[in-house]
Amino acid sequence: MPRLKSFRLTKELVAQRAKDNVIIVTFGNFAFMDFILTWVKHLTDLGVSNLLVGAMDAKLLNALYWKGIPVFDMGSHISTDDVGWGSPIFHKMGRQKVLLINAILPFGFELLMCDTDMVWLKNPLPYLARYPDADILTSSDQVVPTVVDDRLADWKQVGAAYNIGIFHWRPTPPAKKLAKEWIDMLLADDRIWDQNGFNELVRRQTGPAFDDESGIFYSYDGNLKLGILPESIFCSGHTYFVQALHQQFRLQPYALHTTFQYAGTEGKRHRLREAMVFFDPPEYYDAPGGFLSFRPSISKSLLLDGEHNLESHFSLINYQMRQIRSALGLASVLNRTLVMPPLWCRLDRLWFPHPGALLGSMTRQPFLCPLDHVFEVNVMLRDLPAEEFGPAINIREYSFLNNPFLPQRVRESWLDVQLCQEGTEDCHASSNTSRPGLLRFPKRSSEETLKKVFSSFKDVKVIQFSSMQDAFLGFTDKTREEKFRKRVKQYVGIWCCVENHIPGHIYYDMYWDEKPGWKPVPPKTPEDDHPPF
């Protein structure tokens, strides 16, 4: 390992990595190591090598160096743990980004600055080079489309915040002046969020347009030429996962940023896994004990009939939730990792009141929604104490079995389980398959029968049930049942938010079907405002 001073950020270090005078940079601490490896892998798979990673702690610096990833020391000595959104360390990390911009621009290189919770799906450099007159090209949180092709967004229609998770800086005097004023603002008041500070400065005066064609416009008191990257192909968590704008417009996306999600870092990681763009180690795809999956059954009426409203949305979610509850119990009994099913929603989820889908957006109803719209992914993946919550139940994303990284040995070790009525043809509680790879198994079988029969298939990597209807009736041991119930009650979150009511959120309830007359209504009083456990 070379001495620490050889990892300092210098003009010479950047020059070694830059290509066509452009450098692509991200940074983070050791808690985001897997995000950083994913970020690097996507770029290098695209043939892009002019990148650098800033290490905020010695542990990450050491790990990246030994993996052959170009890294520099940020000397910030941030904790190696995950930092929550909005925490003091989160704000400190944000300031490090602005310090980095101020450090690199004087070197004379163009800088594509990225957060670690985004991935590149297409080489962005040719796109950015189409707009050489722009001082800055930035992404945004815009959810209502402003263009339907790959032009820059229509700046007059972008009302949402400019998002600093993806933005490209050129080393021009206006850009340098903005960077300096931005860092001075942040260092003078540690309560200002870096993104809010950027937006405040840049939006101080917007317009006029730079020309009639490019989509570039003047901003920052008329001194800086700014372009806003199109929301359909430089995607937020909403335009990619909820609206799928790139699919609707038949465009190839350049970038995916895991904004608009509800389960912290674990939720971001899970979303990237759902999209099959996260880089996991081989052992992720071959878990001890094997995997359990099932084919969810949803009627056309639940999915499509009637209006898209609270009642129809919760009826659809609750129907799926009951199947998932059974699958979690079955996975626990068989000690297998549950592959979650695709989840369908009728209504969008946000942080504020809305009519079910954002006006002007292209959200299709119903839509395949991310798991964190309903489930507390961060809680599902948390190490809850077994003495209180029973054994851990590991999960995988719904797309897991379709992932190209799934080994052939897992794909080929498969058992289909067809639930049937005991007494009908070939429907017996035994391990005798009716044909290779197919087991007909009685509905409403006991926990003991499940354990006995499926112990014969402990070496099978994937067991897929045809349905979860009457597949699992509960645990025989009442203490185990209570611990399981306590665990899974915490797995579901809220829907947000109804209009003209405070509070406007509604709690999902894993055991809604045990409460006669249960209805999806927000809490009536502050005392009622708590999860249903």
From TrEMBL:
<feature type="transmembrane region" description="Helical">
    <location>
        <begin position="21"/>
        <end position="40"/>
    </location>
</feature>
<protein>
    <recommendedName>
        <fullName>Nucleotide-diphospho-sugar transferase domain-containing protein</fullName>
    </recommendedName>
</protein>
<dbReference type="InterPro" id="IPR053250">
    <property type="entry name" value="Glycosyltransferase_77"/>
</dbReference>
<keyword id="KW-1133">Transmembrane helix</keyword>
<dbReference type="GO" id="GO:0052636">
    <property type="term" value="F:arabinosyltransferase activity"/>
</dbReference>
<keyword id="KW-0812">Transmembrane</keyword>
<dbReference type="GO" id="GO:0052325">
    <property type="term" value="P:cell wall pectin biosynthetic process"/>
</dbReference>
<dbReference type="Pfam" id="PF03407">
    <property type="entry name" value="Nucleotid_trans"/>
</dbReference>
<dbReference type="InterPro" id="IPR005069">
    <property type="entry name" value="Nucl-diP-sugar_transferase"/>
</dbReference>
<dbReference type="GO" id="GO:0005794">
    <property type="term" value="C:Golgi apparatus"/>
</dbReference>
<keyword id="KW-0472">Membrane</keyword>
<feature type="domain" description="Nucleotide-diphospho-sugar transferase">
    <location>
        <begin position="48"/>
        <end position="272"/>
    </location>
</feature>
